[in-house]
Sequence to fold (347 residues):
Amino acid sequence: GRTIGILGGGQLGRMMAVSAAQLGYRCIAYAPEGDNVVSDVCDDIFTNKWDDAAAVAAFAAQCDAVTWEFENVPVATAALIPDDRIFPHPRALETAQDRLNEKRFVEGLGGRPAAYARIDSRADLEAAIDTLGAPGILKTRRDGYDGKGQWRIGSDRDAQGLNLLDMPLIYEAFVEFEAEFSVILVRGQDGEIRFWDSTRNSHDHGILATSSLPAGEAIAAQVDEARELARQVADALRYVGVLTLEFFATRNGPVFNEMAPRVHNSGHWTIEGAATSQFENHIRAVAGLPLGSTATVARSVTMTNIIGSDILETEQWLGQPDTHLHDYGKAEVRDGRKMGHVTKLER
Ligand code: ATP
Ligand code: MG
Ligand code: MG
Fold:
């Protein structure tokens, strides 16, 4: 059989399934959250809970290979799937799901994150502000995305006014960066690694707004060092598939922000802008096929996210040359929700 199982039911899974279909694979999805956007591209959707071991086993039994599109798949769920059938290995989830683990792991490989401190109490936060200073950012160690679960701390007065959550946190010094960029790579089952060009990423209220090429001087000068770290991370995890590391370009070189053990929003431009997209190469790696070229095929590329109700006004994009609209087909429009994206090229 030629079936790929996808854990998670969001837009990343949707775009993976489209690429898989092109390569002659059918996909099924395991998507416990109700509002999935994979039902029109996957043959079957398991809506069982993450901890339903029998359902996970039945799902995996139908698949030649299983992967994930959601970085918060419980490690215990991924671990139920035989090691030779799940790619990447669940150790990548384990490393990346906790910001403290992730930073320690990357530091161990020579990476440099922003100065940070582990926060388990108000006293920890006060001590951290004393030693690392303010401004800084307080983040939940787990489950944050799109800037959710983070608070900008301008001064120790801000910290006093804050109702500290009863969950493990981390405090990071604020990085005065020149630009943000990501390194996206694919690693095959034989250990071969290929990198896409690094885009300049701009954020709005903690949510990715645009990714563009060329990325500019500040980023171009730091990409090699950032790639070297990403390669170390991928090799250490014996990673298979697409892996993303986010960086700040600073006057003192690349500062590691976070990693995502999956295809990434800042790589959506590769669908039209690269010889092989991140989704296609992810499926190739997971299925054990040879990797495709990651070369950029345009002079310039801009990917713009469509957030919330902007998805109701997409005609403006459809009239523009070499401009490609992706509507994820989400049933419910919500403020701050990623509803689609558009990629504009200049060849
Ligand atoms: P994602 O959706 O990328 O997973 P996330 O919720 O995990 O986002 P981060 O990547 O940690 O959040 O932060 C979101 C954005 O906030 C960053 O891209 C950056 O613009 C800003 N930011 C985060 N940490 C810092 C920092 N220490 N200094 C300066 N800016 C920061
Ligand atoms: Mg994140
Ligand atoms: Mg991020």
